[in-house]
UniProtKB/TrEMBL annotation:
Ketoreductase domain ranges (all copies): 14-199
Entry similarity comment: Belongs to the short-chain dehydrogenases/reductases (SDR) family.
Protein name, as recorded: 3-oxoacyl-ACP reductase
UniProt key word Transcription: no
Gene this chain is encoded by: fabG_4
GO biological process: monocarboxylic acid metabolic process
InterPro entries: KR_dom, NAD(P)-bd_dom_sf, Sc_DH/Rdtase_CS, SDR, SDR_fam
NCBIfam families: EF_P_mod_YmfI (NF047420), PRK12826.1-2 (NF009466)
Organism domain of life: Bacteria
Stored Pfam families: adh_short_C2
UniProt key word ATP-binding: no
GO molecular function term, any single one: oxidoreductase activity
Amino acid sequence: MIRGHGEEKNIKDMTVLVTGASRGIGAQIALRFASVGMNVVIHYMNSHEAANEIARSCIELGAKVYTVSADLRSKEQIDRMKEKLEARGLKPDILVNNAGISHYGLLSDTDEEQWDNVMAVNLKGVYLCSQTFMPYMIAQRFGRIINVSSVWGITGGSCEVVYSAAKGGVNAFTKALAKELAPSGVTVNAVAPGAVRTEMMDRFDPEELRQLEEEIPAGRLAAPEEISSLVYFLALPESGYITGQIISPNGGWMT
């Protein structure tokens, strides 16, 4: 139960919006929330069929599900997404800013368009979605904003300067917004995973993956389910004293 305007609200009546939920970590996060019967909004940009497949899996778990497409680089499209949700009576109590794109390459080979695109999706999208959906959370004096960042946003990664800069911005955004929203009962945290076994790792061949696993004290990559469990924990009502934190599940790889 949570309290909003002095009233109790059951977790099954809560709504979670997960951006970039058609695959990878985002899909697992959607499934984790669906497992407790919440209203789950699956955002995607172009992967319509993949989003529908995850939606079907969420429905099988007993969740009420809605899929919605939007380009998170566009305030107009995010506003339209909000209108679509509200038309169905859906106002997110929990926002998981998961959508993101990677970029691998030397900074000297990175053009301005690539820089702008990575920043727009990974950082501007977090800003626009948070700004759009937090007023409802503030009004009911309860909410959770959870940003999916990266260990590279903490340590920096060679040949991932643009991505590291964007995720570092997400981390700073998280800490600052947490201070703004704490008096309103809204927490803001970031989960900054290390290496996770998702499609983003497809650029590595088997030998490179083996070498990477050897660098990690835990001896393996994370499963997406391990990240989604942490996100779910941060969303719980009883996690309300945790805010402004950048938590990095990375198997002891970076400390």
